[in-house]
Design brief:
By secondary structure, the protein is an alpha/beta fold. The protein contains 14 helices and eleven strands.
Length: about 425
């Protein structure tokens, strides 16, 4: 009986990390498709060998450009590593990213690690943060974590920087990329880091980090994931009692045209790579698609504004339901049960993600028995909450790493009121 149990346990672990022994075989050499936004980067991102079947292998490292250095960084390096796709057959993929090491002497055992999950940049390869750089908001935020004595590993996600579709907002793909980035840095043997991981994400990245927190016990039991810190949370949880599901957040035809295009050509095409995207688009939509294939989020929004496009409805010539219907099931977590403490920061002026959906997610996590600390910030926007939450998220993480369980307010949640106006004079609070 004991031998049967050990076999069953091993089988479960094999399935959790990406399948059976056969599924762990090396994958084919990555194929780049410039017509779908691949390419345009340096040779560093071009992997020309079969993809290792074992996820979390560090494959290539180079110094990042000098302008990526932050005040509290001693070293910033680009990395390539192996992971597993979160869509289709779930085969091996190559993912790019960065590692940032803080200044100073590492503590005994190495620096703890922040696994950073970035917000929306686009779906073309050139939008990978390791290639195009980070904005001032994220630079300030990550530099604060460096100053607190954390190394940072920052994935670009599947399909950003490397060949293939970027499965935008699909938590399983993003979770694999995040967890395998931490594995790669720990296994690489090049860096003074220890197996003590904090998942940190904003917006798209908050949903990605939450997905990684949910999946970590099954997919990466070798990682010691201690906590998750989420701001501007964009997620769906199947067990949530929905307070806010406005069409401007859920219906591509009603949402802001730039986000509608990212969902259509990023998310939907990743789930249905056989689809002819142009066959669903108006002439205006085809122009915006070309912008998205060769530019990033600000390029797409600038194009939409220049063309006077009001919402996603002007992009589509016919219903996109045949390829969009699978988005919601793949976007939504099965439940809200998270096994490590979770910090959620919500700006009460967050028009980009909304406040009701974040409240719903926190309620669902609390109802599932998760240990959640929810902080709301009057007058702070989607952007402003990132750095505005640092005075609270820092002590939260310090408590967790010192072995103290931070306070939870699951028993006293208050539903947000009407969306507030962003406060003036607050950095990045646009």
């Amino acid at each position: 009986m004991a031998s049967k149990f050990r076999f069953a346990a091993c089988a479960l672990v094999a399935i959790a990390v990406g399948g059976s022994a056969r599924a762990a075989a090396d994958g084919p050499v990555p194929h780049s498709d410039p017509s779908m936004g691949d390419g345009g980067l340096s040779a560093f991102y071009d992997w020309t060998k079969p993809v290792p079947g074992r996820p979390g292998q560090l494959l290539r490292v180079e110094p990042a450009p000098a302008d990526r250095m932050l005040p509290h960084a001693a070293q910033v390096m680009r990395i390539l590593y192996s992971s597993r796709s979160g869509v289709g057959s779930g085969g091996p993929v190559i993912v790019s990213g960065e590692i940032l090491l803080p200044k100073g002497r590492p503590p005994a055992g190495g620096w703890p690690v922040v696994a950073w999950a970035h917000g929306t940049t686009g779906f073309a390869d050139v939008c990978a943060p390791s290639w195009q750089g980070r904005d001032a908001r994220d630079n300030d935020y990550l530099d604060t974590w460096l100053s607190r004595g954390f190394a940072i590993v920052a994935t670009d996600y599947e399909g950003l920087g490397t060949p293939g579709d970027h499965p935008y907002l699909l938590w399983k793909s993003e979770a694999h990329s995040i967890l395998d980035s931490a594995r790669a840095v720990l296994r690489g043997g090049k860096y003074p880091v220890r197996n003590e991981i904090v998942l940190v994400g904003q917006s798209q990245g908050a949903g990605a980090a939450l997905g990684a927190a949910w999946l970590a016990p099954a997919y990466a039991p070798d990682l010691h994931v201690k906590a998750a810190v989420l701001t501007g949370l964009v997620t769906g949880i199947a067990t949530a009692k929905t307070h806010e599901k406005a069409e401007s957040y859920s219906n591509p035809a009603k949402m802001a045209a730039g986000f509608a295009m990212l969902r259509f050509a990023g998310t939907d095409h990743a789930l249905h790579p056989e689809a002819d995207l142009n066959s669903y688009l108006t002439e205006k939509g085809k122009i915006v698609l070309q912008t998205a294939l060769h530019g990033c989020i600000h390029d797409v929004f600038d194009k939409v504004k220049t063309m006077g496009i009001r919402d996603g409805g002007e992009l589509f010539s016919r219903p996109i339901e045949p390829i969009d219907r699978d988005m919601e099931p793949n976007f939504t977590l099965p439940n809200g049960r998270i096994t490590m403490p979770v910090f959620v920061g919500t700006g009460l002026a967050d028009a980009a993600a909304g406040t009701g959906g974040q409240y719903d997610a926190v309620k669902a996590m609390c109802a599932a028995g998760s240990h959640v600390s929810w902080h709301t910030y009057p007058g702070l926007s989607h952007n402003g909450t990132v750095n505005g939450s640092l005075p609270d998220s820092g002590p939260f993480v310090a408590d967790v790493l010192s072995g103290h369980m931070p306070a939870t307010n699951c028993g006293s949640l208050v539903q947000p009121g009407p969306l507030q106006t962003p406060a003036k004079g607050v950095p990045f609070n646009d």
